[in-house]
Every structure is written in C-alpha cells, then in structure tokens.
Amino acid sequence: MERSAGSRPRRRRSRPVLGGAVAALAAGALTVTGLVSTAQAADINVARNAGFESGLSGWTCTGGSGATVSSPVHGGSAALKATPSGQDNAKCTQTVAVKPNSTYALSSWVQGGYAYLGASGTGTTDVSTWTPGSTGWTQLRTSFTTGPSTTSVQVYTHGWYGQAAYYADDVAVTGPDGGGGTEEPGPAIPGAPAGLAVGTTTSSSVALSWNAVSGATGYTVYRDGAKATTTTGTSATVSGLAADTAYQFSVSATNAAGESVRSATVSGRTAKKDGTGPGPSTSVPKHAVTGYWQNFNNGAAVQKLSDVPANYDIIAVSFADAAGTPGAVTFNLDSAGLNGYTVAQFKADIKAKQAAGKNVIISVGGEKGTVSVNSDASANAFADSLYTLIQEYGFNGVDIDLENGLNSTYMTKALRSLSSKVGSGLVITMAPQTIDMQSTSGEYFKTALNIKDILTVVNMQYYNSGSMLGCDGKVYSQGSVDFLTALACIQLEGGLAPSQVGLGVPASTRGAGSGYVAPSVVNAALDCLAKGTGCGSFKPSRTYPDIRGAMTWSTNWDATAGNAWSNAVGPHVHGLP
C-alpha cells in the first residue's frame, strides 16, 4: 500500500518477451533443424522410463518443477507435468547412452502450455523443437547425429517462463543401442506427497487430503510426529482428538521399495465442543469489504476511526512500524498528523467499531515497510510483538502487506505462533501485489496456502501492476473486468477457498499510480466470479458464490471522493448470494 499518492518504484522480476515470433509460429510446432530422419528397423528407444511409468526415475527436473500425473496421459498410466515458475522454465532432462556417428530420431507427445523438446551434447549440431501449446496431445519430432566420440547425449523438455504447465509422455530417442539398453528400472521409493491440506474438522477429528504420488501404493499419516493412520487413497480423517486443540500433521508415500520422506507439516485445529467451529471465530461476514485507514496525512481526508463508514467490515490500521529487534513491530499513533487524535480516543473508537460488528486489524508493511521475518528468532519476535499490540489496543488481527519480500517458511511460523497465542477471534488478511500471486510457488502464495486453515482473506492489489497473466495463460492489462477476474481465478483455482479471495482496488484515481477502475467495474467482476454474469472476454469455467468481497486503498481516499467507492461497492458486496 502507498503512503503517498502517485506512482512508485516497483521491484519487478523481468519476464522474457516472446515477441512476434509467437504469433508467427502459433499455427503449429516448428522443427528447428528441419527434416526429421526416419529410424532404421533395427533401432531401439534408448530413453529409459520414457513413459514416466516409474515416476521421475531417470529424469531430473529443475527446481522441483516436475511431477508425474495419472491424467492426462498419452499412453500407459502416467505422464510428466512440469510447471514453469519465475525464472525456472521447468526443464526436465535425461542422459541417454548413444553410439558415435549415429543418427537418432527424437520425439515426444506434449500438451498444455509452451513445450520444447531437444538434445544437447550431440557432438555435432544440437537440436530443439517446440509448440506454443495445445489442448490435446501433439507430437514433437526432430533428429540429431552424434559426433565421432559421443557416447552420451542429454535429451530434455521444458516450458516457457510465466506460461502454463506442460505435459509430456512417451519420449522416444530411437537409434542404435548405445549400451544403456531399454530395460525399465524397478520400483523406486516414491517422492514426498505435496499439497497436504486440512479439510473439515469436528471437535474430535481433522480431515486431510493431499496430491497423489506416482508409484505410491499407500500413504502414512503422522500426527505430531507419531503415526496416526494409513490409507491407499489421497485423503484420511484423523479421529480421537481433543476439542479446540491445534495438531501438526504430515504424510508420507509408500510402495514395495520403501517409504518417502514426510511432506511439509500443516496445522489443523479441532472445533470447540459447543460447535462454534475450528480456529478463530470471527465476526467477518460471508461477504466483506476491507478498507485501509491511514495513520498519516498524505493529502487524503484525515479521519478518526469513528469517521470510517459502516460499509467497511474490516478496517486495516496502516501501518505498524519496525522496532529495534529484527521481526518485531510496534505502533505509534500519528496524533500530530491526525489533528490531535489521541490514543485514548483511538482505543475507544476500536471498541465502538467492534461493538458495531466490525473488525479492526493492524497492517504490517506497506510501500515503505521494512519489517523482515527470515529466521526463527525474528518469527518469534514478530508474533510476540503483535500479540502485545493486540492486547494493548484490542486489534482483532493482523494484515500482511510486506511489499519488499516475504519468507514463507518463517512467516508461516510467525502467524501460526500468533494464532496459538490469540486463539479464537484472530483475523488474518494479506495484501500481496499481483506478481506475488502469479504462481503457487511464490512466497506469498505459499504462505497463504500454508495457513489456509486460519486465513481470513487475501486481498491482492490489482493496481500499480501493468499487464499480468490470467489463469488461462493469456495476458491481461490492468484497469478492466478481465484483469480482475482472470487474475482472481489463479487464486481460486490455486488452492484458496473462494471465501479467502477478495479484489483489492484503489478508492479513487488519486489512491494509486495506476490501475484505478470505477466501482461499477469492481461490481461487474464480483458478479462474474460469484454468478457468471457481467464478465468481459474472460469467463471462468465455474462460479464462486462464496467470493469474500473487495478491498480498497484507502478509506481516506474514499472519503476524499465523497465515499463514492464504499457507497457503490459496499451494498453490492453485502448483496452477493
């Protein structure tokens, strides 16, 4: 969030520009080296585990970008799925044994996003071919000739930066046997399960689910480090638990070769015996409006909390300040800048808002925020200092608006620690920038998924952004219905519940450097996501009636414009199904 109006410098990761070549070549796959040779009848496929039936055995994928899936597949029961992220193009490689001075036909079936197939280290001319993506299986083909002393070649697949995941199956490197043979390896110990998440909870049980692991025949669930249950599926319910208690869960995959390492740990809290539900019992309505209240004067209307209109359900006090200890925060009311607003009045106004059913939370970060949580010590300091502020001022929770970097491992620890201290009633919101939520591998996105069971809402900032990719892999420009809906779709289909997704926009043209949209555009985007009406060119494949609502920067800029934003968006949000 901005402490001053107008544009601001943004730290952005560079993205390769595909340029006009994409449009020129989008009609089909191109073979870089020209004609494809035909293999001789006596030739064999020298690639091992070419159909990924043994997981990723024999293959290496950069940055953990690759995994095997059971659907879609071209042949057999498995295929490769590799997902580009950031500066990683999801390259998966295998070194194959070849004969010198020999010609090999290289092919693979692919679908999904941009997909490349190639060979390097041939000793002559390295080759590659690609396709800009397809909804069905497409075969990529090329060929290469080995040099006089070449006995091994690296074959590879990869996608393209910022594009959707690609799938590959039935890779063939057909030519003379180089000594590697074609015998497939035996079962290998499976990889650790990913995507472990907490589902429905009762006062005595917690439901869990996770992603399937290729080659696994069973799974073992652990509770607080001890074996709790086993299953052959990708879900389980752990029972016999105490009410209103937090537990740590992990899961491993097993087969005849052995047991994998355990997954990342997730926390799940059982419900109270009175049925009030697990974790924080907040007063946040099903559809809510969030507004940032400025604890400074930057030319927008100066407000007391009591001046904030009733259309706002969550009021984020902006901002907490970094303290002397790494990770620790404090809060200093800018009484001088707020026309003499006293701490006593501020605290009384918080209580009055809460009595009216509103939530007042403390926001950490902003454009100039310097809080860093990157170690166990700083995570503890962060949680402890926030708990102190919550006790002193009566805040309902915390908003994470760190725009200069976030470490998902330690922020997760910090927020879980805070949750364990505060217990029922804690509100946790987040306000990442658009670049932070382009992929589930981003630190902000990982943090949101890590705390999904205690997270209230993510209100991404759909402004000061420029163009971004939507969930359909297309590029959308800010300031439109499509930008709001296609980018929200990434979060909605990336693991967050609809109730944990909100649309963050400026309250007026002065509230941000770029990306302002009229309240009517915000309402149309909410209708598109919730009801499938009012959409632009992008229309989601399904509706999300539980979409949480909208957020704005700021209540002060809204007041400067006569509260036009909250008067239009507030009733619309509260009227959603």
Automatic annotation (TrEMBL):
Coiled coil: none annotated. Keywords: Carbohydrate metabolism, Glycosidase, Hydrolase, Polysaccharide degradation. Residues 287-576 form the GH18 domain. Residues 192-273 form the Fibronectin type-III domain. It comes from the Bacteria. Residues 262-285 are annotated as: Disordered. SMART domains: FN3, Glyco_18. Belongs to the glycosyl hydrolase 18 family. Chitinase class II subfamily. PANTHER family: ENDOCHITINASE. This is chitinase. It comes from Streptomyces salyersiae.
